Each structure stands twice: as structure tokens, then as C-alpha cells.
């Protein structure tokens, strides 16, 4: 039985494209390769999944003339198996969006480590928030309204200036503040900052980092005998190969610092790491960062973990490329550790456009 040569070529070409795509995605999800095109690909993994499904459907339909022939059943089975096997590379999507972390922030975790639940000490909910304002954004009225409505206890900012701070009256309700240069001075006429505002007393802690980039670490005092830790970070946006390597070096330095503090008992204290990580949950650098900050204390590694407030809480996006909703992903994160009794899901402020390509995010922590 003769085979349509066009259908046969399409079949072979389609298979090659599927194999290349799957291999590229697998490489992008492993931090070893650190290639910018792969990072871009995995950063928008849910959109790649949609394209994958459409391409697979078109391939199957266009190759039907070949596949329905009795003598080509083996090829039909191979193509179907390839499509199904390739789809497994997208398993991270449902695992992150819908699978709740196991063994995190639970009562059994506390008892196994000999810790006392913090609610016995202070019994309070703490709301922490983060917002990358975007340095050129002057939508002060709506931003201030959002700050009032969210009413966080602690809020971190990226890409904010002294002029911005003066134009946001709600920030006057935060008596404690720490700030540091955000590393964007060449793009603006005035210094751009990362800044941490708190309704509780802040004590600055100098992080032990091997490289310098925008990070603020502080101890938050609730009373004379109880405190928590917070780290605010803004890594370099990986818009090129060199910037990708720079961001990954920053993440490695931060992870090493947190892991070192874990060995010194840091993991026993309530700790939050938040900010614009310029890092999607699908990236190999994300998995590498989480592994490193959670694996320092080997005896507790399976239980004492930092978890993302967005993990298992449904589909979220915190940033959109050029404000386009159809090209959005999650690169802003709030991680908290076992020192907190509980953590609500990540909430994005969607009531009104705040003029930034990022969304204001927040979560509630029980301490």
C-alpha cells in the first residue's frame, strides 16, 4: 500500500519538533544548563502546554491519512506514545498549582522537632505583602488605596523612590522602615530603592552574601521575647544570557546565606523570604533554590521546609510581559518556613490596575 509522501514527511517533521520541544523543556527545568532561551521557554510553561496540545492535535489530524492505514499502526502507536510521554514534562504545572505541599507547617512537624507552637506564645495573624511598583509608575492614588485595603503589617517594595514614598500617605502608618539601593540608578533620575515597611519594630541584619545585590534582612520584634525574620529581595531580570547567569548567581548566594543560617538554628524561627525573584516556578533555578534553602539541616530536611504561599492554591500570575495578560507568569514570591503555624494562600490584588507590570501580593501568617 502506497503512502502519501507529504503525509510521511509531515509525520517525521512533527515527531522531530515534538522531541526537540520536550528535550528543551527538560533542559530548562534543570539548573545545570542555564541557557537563556530555555529559561524563557519554561517561564511561560502553561502557555507552552497550550501550544503543545494544539500542535499535537494538528499533527494527529494532518497525519491521519498516514495513520489510518492498516500497515501504519506501529507509527500511529509511536506518535501517540510520544505525545503522551512528552506531556509528562508539563507535570510541574498541576503539581504547583493544585497539589498542596506535604508535611509543611503542621502540628506533627513541630512535635518532631521539639518546637512549641507559636500561637501559645503570641497568638496573632501577621499579614505580609510585596509590590514591585515599577520605577516609572506614578499611579499614587490607586496604589495608596490598595495599601489601605490590604492593610498589611509588613510590606516590601521594589523599584520605589523617596518621591514615591512621600506620595503614598498610607506608608506614614508604618513607623519602621529599612531601605537599600535597587541597582537601577542608570535608568532613573533619582535613586531607586527596595524598601521594607513595618508596623512592628525592625532591626536590620547584614546578610552574609558572597555578591552584592538588592537584599534587606531584618528581625521583626513583636514583644520583648518574640521575633521573626524577614528577607526582601530583588534579583536581576534574566533578559539576556549574561543577566540570567547574574540572577542565578544571586539566587545561589542567597540560598547559601539562608542555608548557613538554618544550620545555626535559623529554621526554628519564623522566617519569610519575599520579593521579585524574576523566577518562575517552572525554572530549574527555582527548584535548585528551594532545594538549597531546605537541605542544610539534614535531620529535618523532609519536614522543615520553606514553602511558597502560592503552592497548591490555584492558578496565579504576578507579572505580565508589557502588561499583556496573555503573556503572564509568576515571578514574585513569598516563602515562609515552619516557624509559622500556618500560612494562607497567596492573594493578588486585582481590584484595580496599579499601573505596574507586577501585581501586589500578600499572605497571612499565623504566629
The low-confidence parts are: 103-122
Give the number of domains.
2
- In total, the number of strands is 15
Class by SSE composition: alpha+beta
Question: In terms of topology, how is this protein built?
Answer:
Elements: H1 5-28, H2 36-43, H3 45-62, H4 64-67, H5 73-87, H6 92-98, H7 107-113, E1 125-132, H8 140-150, E2 154-160, H9 162-166, E3 176-181, E4 193-198, E5 201-205, E6 215-223, E7 226-234, H10 241-263, E8 271-276, H11 284-294, E9 307-308, E10 319-320, E11 328-329, E12 332-336, E13 342-343, E14 347-348, E15 361-366
Parallel strand pairs: 1-2, 7-8
Antiparallel strand pairs: 1-15, 2-4, 3-4, 5-6, 6-7, 8-12, 9-12, 10-11, 13-15, 14-15
What does this protein look like?
By secondary structure, the chain is an alpha+beta fold. It folds into 2 domains: 86 residues; 262 residues, 4-Layer Sandwich (Deoxyribonuclease I, Chain A), CATH 3.60.10.10. The protein contains 11 helices and 15 strands. The strands form 3 sheets. Strands 1, 2, 3, 4, 13, 14 and 15 form a 7-stranded mixed sheet that branches. Strands 5-6-7-8-12-9 form a 6-stranded mixed sheet, with no helix packed on it. Strands 10-11 form a two-stranded antiparallel ribbon. Helix 10 links the parallel strand 7 and strand 8.
